[in-house]
Amino acid sequence: MGHHIIGVVENFEKLSPIPTKFGQRNIVKFRICDGRNSPKVTVWGKLAEITDKNYKPELESPIIAILTSAKLQKFMNSVQINTMPSSKIYFNLDTDVVKSFRKRLAQQGYKTPEDIGSVSTISNSVQVVETLTLKELTEKTSTDYIKKNVMCFVTIKRVEAGDSWWYYGYNFCHEEVHLLEGRYKCVNPKCLKSSPYAEKRFRIMVLAHDKTEAVNVVLSDRAVKRLVGKTATMLLEEIEDLAENPPSTLFPQQILDIANKDVTFNILISDDNVLINSTMYNATDAYVSKKSKSSTSETVEEMLQSTTSGFGEVS
Q: Which residues form a coiled coil (predicted)?
């Protein structure tokens, strides 16, 4: 299975032919840097031609690439990245994950080799987003996985309809707030700020399964918005005039209808998942998958093209 990688393009070498035992083939080479590591990337064949065409030095700098279904190999103690027939490469994709990555680079004071007039000498290790089955997810007990993002392809078996499907969240940290003396106060002990305003946000739990396991997953506001196609505020307004029960206790059919959908979850592994083996997971984002998808890269391509607020950051 291929890996999905994000990083800054460095030392891009234009399309060139090389002789191989299969005849002459075109390749493109560059390095991809996450601010600390800078492995070499080799792109082959038709994808090399597309990559060479899409790479434009006048793009916003630094140029950030996302590689899907890439193959990692270790050669002489260095990691090298090669593309496969299912691989895709995107430059400066208009998504929050790219914007967030660019912001992190700026905060770390990253400079391109062109800025400092030298070739990158950063190490050749690389960070990737793992794609796991649910059974593999439940077996991740190393503390190295705490706060790590992974991808899981699952089917939503059912929505666990509880007392409420939305809450008032603080506009900045998105934690739940309580109304106190006319102001909404954040319950997060690291925040505890208050505001005269709060936003309505989704929060639901589903039972998800694949061929290996079944687990409960709490879906974030972003994940539910992606699956339902509207905000909590919009949904509340739609049902308010039609509902006999107060909106806070009525579970909308639009949410219940996500049952039986094939989806990709971005799972953020928590302390409890690792330290006490909790099998209740948190999905920071979700994307509808298609049963006809024949490769991981095609699913990721759909995720990237549909993203308006994040690709489950590759970090």
A: none
With tokens 């989704």, the residue in question is: 202
Question: Looking at this protein, which amino acid is placed at residue 300?
Answer: V
**What is the rounded distance in angstroms from the CA atom of residue 43 to the CA atom of residue 46?**
9
Per-residue burial over 150-161, b if 16 or more Cβ lie within 10 Å, else e, is: bbbbbbbeebee
**Is the previous residue joined to 17 through a cis bond, with omega within 30 degrees of 0?**
no
Percent of the chain scoring above 70 in pLDDT:
78
Tokens of 238: 């739609």
pLDDT tens-digit series, residues 96-119: 788 888 888 887 777 776 665 544
Q: Where does 70-185 have alpha helices with state H?
A: 96-107, 113-116, 134-138
Determine contact, residues 68/300, Cβ cutoff 8 Å.
yes
Count of beta carbons in the 10 Å neighbourhood of residue 55? 19
Question: CB neighbours (10 Å) of residue 137?
Answer: 24
pLDDT at residue 129, rounded to an integer: 65
Cα–Cα distance for residue pair 124/37, rounded to 1 Å? 5
**DSSP bridge partners of 91:** 65
Q: Where are the alpha helices (DSSP H) in the chain?
A: 45-54, 96-107, 113-116, 134-138, 221-228, 232-240, 253-256, 271-275, 296-306
Structure tokens at 298: 């095609």
